[in-house]
Batch of 2 targets.
Target 1
Amino acid sequence: MSSLKHKNVLVVGGSEGIGLAVAQAAQAAGAQVYVASRSEHKLTKASAVLGSSALTFPVDFTDESSVQRLFQHLPAVDHLIITAIAKTEARRVADLSVAEAQMWFAAKFWGAYTVVRHALPKLATDGSITLFSGNFSVRPSQGWSVLASANGAIESFGRSLAVELAPVRVNVIRPGLVQTPAYSEMPAEARREMFQQYESVVPARKAGLPEEIAQAVVFAITNPYMTGSVLTLDGGARLV
Ligand SMILES: NC(=O)c1ccc[n+]([C@@H]2O[C@H](COP(=O)([O-])OP(=O)(O)OC[C@H]3O[C@@H](n4cnc5c(N)ncnc54)[C@H](OP(=O)(O)O)[C@@H]3O)[C@@H](O)[C@H]2O)c1
């Protein structure tokens, strides 16, 4: 395994949830960590968790000029991880306009594409990119067709990039349900029910924790033989 000592690790979407846990795990493994997301407030909270050695940058990955500005301010990047996603909600196709569907798709797939595109000049040839999909790509759920489609596109994009950008390694993490602020706007009772239902069905009998996903990211970015892979951490949800 390669080490993260003296490596620059950029987490786009790293101010909370899985991204923040990835930043913490990379930092614990010796990396210089850079965290980017939209809200100054969340970036300040992330700084308090990570300490002053971690540097934070504002970026909206759905805005290409914002992404360009981010990379103007960054040094070379060894490992790029993209966890950013805008908050979405379950909505059937019949109730979702084309414009809204495109916006949700953009806030996952095109955001990741834009970050990868502008990271390329700064990316080390022995480095890596880690993208995030989600288990809706293989285990659909009613109302989530756009997110499922974006997740499927991310997985195809990751495989294509692994070939096109070689020897840069590119992998995709496919989480199942993970306890993160992504669900903070749900009514508490509905959230509790969703987690209980998931935990009663999946073989692992639990939902994921951000640090469990972060452990897999550190594995993916430090393993020199791993590229073009989709790593599933869903408690076995895809099997039942
Ligand atoms: N949690 C789950 O159950 C689950 C399940 C399957 C897949 N996943 C995938 O795992 C990844 C991480 O999810 P999570 O639950 O950790 O999400 P989260 O807790 O909602 O965190 C999302 C992060 O992305 C940032 N972000 C949102 N929109 C952005 C934008 N336009 N530009 C830049 N940054 C932006 C947010 O900060 P700002 O708001 O400040 O920008 C925040 O730091 C996502 O790709 C998600 O689809 C999660």
Target 2
Amino acid sequence: MKTPAELTQLFRDRGFKVTPQRQCIFGVLHGNAGHPTAEWVYQAALAEMPTMSLRTVYQTLNDLADMGEIQQLDLGTGSSRFDPNVDSHHHLVCESCGKVRDLYADFRRLTVPEAARQGFTVGSAEVVFRGLCDACATATPQ
Ligand SMILES: [Zn+2]
Ligand SMILES: [Zn+2]
């Protein structure tokens, strides 16, 4: 993801108004590896800027996703997650607490057999590994 200053310039180049609220959201997302939900981004931005609105957060996330600066992911955790890492990568997902981590692994040998392709030309694949994070795996069972 580009820096908040670069994103500000990019938005202005496209004729979008860049408010201090939007710049605050850029700052919250920059370098954020936690794959936050919109609600999480809202709470983090609100802590810095009491005039933040959830509507502004959704609008800004949608604009960033449309521009390819972030990825919107549905990882089966209940709400969309937003990923400022737009490199090709995979994910580890904790089924208990919803923690998401980037996973870099070589899946070039992951292929779809000709007979199963149903006429599709396969360009890419994203793999989601589900399980328990360290904290959840070591937590005392109820
Ligand atoms: Zn967990
Ligand atoms: Zn990711």
